[in-house]
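queue> pop job 88
queue> type: inverse folding (structure -> sequence)
queue> payload:
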């Protein structure tokens, strides 16, 4: 008998209770606290936030029901039964914290918002900054045909995805920016607001003018007018109209006076339904449009430069940050020979005003060897990073050799650099913690199979932009990652993956120290990679779709790895013993429970209405003679470890922020050259240790760790349940991110 298509795959209450009785979640020292304030959604009908089992159930059911075979006229009962069993395995895997989807999925999967906005399941996106058509997308400026390429489109894509909580990489390589037409005319921008608006005063302060007074002194003839609806799309279209009015190709009437009416935008502090949080009010939009208009007006009769386009992207990112729960994550990708781009953050006024909003990297190929200027800039401020598009386009894993054009449409990357992306494409992530999975008796091949199938289903979401739908359906790209890699290597193999070095000459004749890798680790990572590829092939055959163009990655992790308490991505622990400081709003109800357990709490010295809580943390294998931390592992070993993972595990990229000591700065350029044929993307930061007050991570001694640990007198989860039986709504951790570098957002 056919199963009705109205029946969704679901988990029974009895099954969930059984797993809760059999499996203990592997919470890290900050795990439950991080979860409760970051991913536990509010349940209004029960006047409380989710518990972990409810979050996992929501996420798993939201994902499993994306399988397209459940959306046919007659659902095969065997398929329904198989997917039910798979949902049960996924629940057990994630509930135990042996693996998790990305932070975006933990927050959005299974919600009504997911059903309305399929984009929300993907962490980050990429767009090339050149004129493009809007196509059949949910953003449709009224003044242009959707098939016509226009300059505003990439900025609209960036603005839209940032406001939906994603991060965006954008390419300002000259070959893209040079396609922008010359700026035909300056635009006289006026932003008006009605006196009845609750945002009236702050909007005037930001640069708007009184609507009634302006209308009394002006008429609307010959002007571009747009009344912004109180929607995300309205903000995007308002900005697009202002940008395109500078170009006669998009504004053939030549009207150069643009009037944007913001009277209908809700004031600051009003609730945002669906995504959550509170509104910023229209003032940030006013400031952004005035600033972007100034950038373009300064180029009348000329072409925009890569720096101009980066500034426009950064001004958009700055505005999104002002939106409370949303965090802007951007990476700007420019030319390796573009001196102005490489040095643009040295303008301190513009850096503090808006250029902080992106990490910047340069695009190279394997023939590029001029790393000295780049290395010098990195030694000063940790930027730019490096992205090798040639390797991304022609290689999966390095172990599999050159495969010409295997990923030919790649133009950039997501903000953390772990996924090489084509125009309009997102990253699509799932993360396994192999050290925990083995502790919980999982067959790692099964764990990674579940990860691959989860990510594959995400590609069947309903996407808002035509460019995204087209490239996702073509590539079906997935990014199965692993975290706690350093923990697992030491647990499984008893030694770090780099066993030693041998002196060899590279193809240019230069002597280099070539790493020698532990053979057992090579075999293990290779076997897991092949298990993911086999799982994708099998599932693709079942679904009747193309196999994924690439499958595996190493994401930097961050918040998600804190849940399970493992090392972040491929990174070495910051220290064997450390204080991890978490910032909270001073009204957060979790503070009562933390205080009851005698955690050290003090006012934040940088931000009002915020407090710092200190969590003592011991790294796995902290006392092992083979343990290495970010504070003492060499820059050379970090480069070599990233190269190992790019060779035997990741066919996408490996995200790594290499830390270096001041005396190692002279090694940066030589190491870039040594690994130019292996590493697809790399960024570096100086190791700061405890160099400033209330640092997020502060290395401490073993004795200090136990002193702090012994001061803690209770269980926070139990204390919170006792003190707040009805919970409290709408608060969250301050300054948390889904990536170790802070580049990717949670929500």
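queue> result:
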């Amino acid at each position: 008998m056919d199963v009705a298509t109205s029946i969704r795959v679901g988990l029974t209450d009895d099954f969930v209770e059984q797993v809760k009785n059999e499996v203990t979640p592997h919470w890290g020292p900050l795990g439950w606290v991080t979860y409760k304030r970051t991913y536990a959604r509010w349940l209004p009908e029960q006047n409380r936030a989710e518990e972990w089992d409810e979050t996992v159930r929501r996420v798993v059911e939201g994902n499993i029901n994306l399988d397209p075979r459940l959306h046919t006229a007659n659902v095969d009962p065997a398929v329904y039964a198989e997917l039910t069993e798979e949902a049960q395995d996924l629940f057990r895997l994630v509930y135990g914290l042996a693996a998790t989807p990305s932070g975006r999925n933990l927050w959005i999967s299974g919600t009504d918002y997911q059903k309305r906005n399929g984009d929300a399941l993907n962490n980050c996106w990429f767009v090339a900054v050149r004129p493009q058509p809007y196509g059949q997308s949910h953003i449709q400026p009224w003044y242009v045909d959707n098939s016509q390429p226009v300059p505003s489109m990439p900025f609209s894509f960036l603005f839209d995805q940032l406001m939906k909580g994603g991060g965006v990489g954008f390419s300002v390589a000259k070959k893209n920016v040079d396609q922008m037409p010359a700026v035909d005319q300056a635009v006289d921008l006026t932003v008006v607001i009605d006196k009845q608006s609750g945002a009236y005063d702050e909007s005037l302060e930001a640069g708007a003018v009184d609507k009634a007074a302006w209308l009394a002194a002006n008429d609307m003839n010959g002007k571009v007018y747009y009344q912004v609806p109180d929607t995300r799309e309205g903000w995007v279209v308002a900005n697009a109209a202002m940008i395109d009015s500078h170009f006669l190709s998009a504004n053939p009437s030549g009207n150069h006076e643009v009037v944007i009416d913001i009277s209908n935008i809700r004031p600051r502090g009003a609730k945002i339904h669906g995504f959550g949080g509170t509104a910023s009010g229209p003032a940030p939009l006013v400031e952004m449009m005035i600033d972007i208009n100034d950038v373009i007006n300064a180029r009348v009769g000329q072409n925009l430069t890569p720096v101009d386009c980066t500034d426009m992207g950064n001004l958009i990112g700055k505005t999104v940050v002002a939106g409370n729960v949303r965090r802007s994550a951007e990476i700007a990708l420019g030319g390796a020979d573009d001196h102005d781009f490489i040095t643009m953050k040295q303008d301190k006024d513009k850096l503090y005003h808006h250029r902080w909003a992106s990490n910047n990297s340069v695009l190279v190929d394997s023939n590029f060897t001029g790393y000295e200027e780049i290395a010098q800039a990195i030694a000063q401020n940790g930027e730019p990073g490096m992205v090798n598009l040639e390797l991304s386009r022609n290689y999966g894993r390095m172990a599999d050799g050159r495969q010409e054009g295997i990923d030919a449409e790649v133009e950039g990357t997501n903000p953390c650099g772990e996924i090489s992306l084509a125009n309009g494409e997102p990253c699509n992530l799932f993360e396994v913690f192999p050290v925990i999975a083995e502790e919980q008796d999982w067959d790692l091949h099964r764990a990674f199979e579940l990860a691959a199938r989860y990510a594959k289903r995400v590609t069947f979401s309903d996407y808002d932009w035509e460019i995204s739908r087209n490239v996702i359906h073509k590539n079906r790209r997935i990014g199965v990652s692993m975290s706690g890699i350093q923990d697992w290597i030491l647990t499984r193999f008893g030694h770090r993956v780099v066993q030693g070095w041998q002196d060899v000459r590279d193809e240019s004749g230069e002597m280099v120290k070539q790493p020698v890798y532990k053979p057992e680790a090579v075999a293990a990572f290779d076997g897991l990679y092949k298990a993911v590829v086999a799982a994708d092939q099998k599932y693709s055959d079942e679904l009747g779709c193309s196999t994924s163009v690439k499958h595996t990655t190493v994401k930097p992790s961050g918040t998600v790895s804190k849940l399970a308490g493992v090392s972040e991505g491929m990174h070495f622990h910051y220290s064997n013993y450390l204080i991890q400081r978490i910032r909270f709003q001073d009204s957060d109800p979790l503070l009562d429970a933390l205080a009851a357990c005698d955690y050290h709490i003090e006012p934040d010295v940088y931000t009002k209405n915020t407090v710092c809580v200190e969590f003592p943390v011991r790294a796995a294998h902290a006392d092992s003679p083979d343990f290495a931390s970010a504070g003492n592992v060499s820059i050379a070993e970090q480069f070599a470890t990233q190269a190992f993972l790019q060779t035997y595990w990741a066919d996408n990229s490996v995200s790594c922020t290499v830390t270096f000591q001041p005396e190692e700065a002279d090694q940066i350029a030589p190491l870039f050259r040594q690994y130019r044929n292996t590493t697809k993307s790399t960024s570096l930061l100086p190791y700061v240790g405890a160099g400033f007050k209330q640092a997020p991570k502060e290395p401490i001694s073993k004795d200090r760790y136990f002193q702090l640990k012994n001061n803690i007198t209770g269980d926070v989860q139990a204390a919170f349940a006792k003190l707040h039986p009805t919970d409290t709504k709408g608060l969250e951790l301050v300054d948390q991110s889904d990536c170790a570098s802070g580049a990717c957002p949670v929500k």
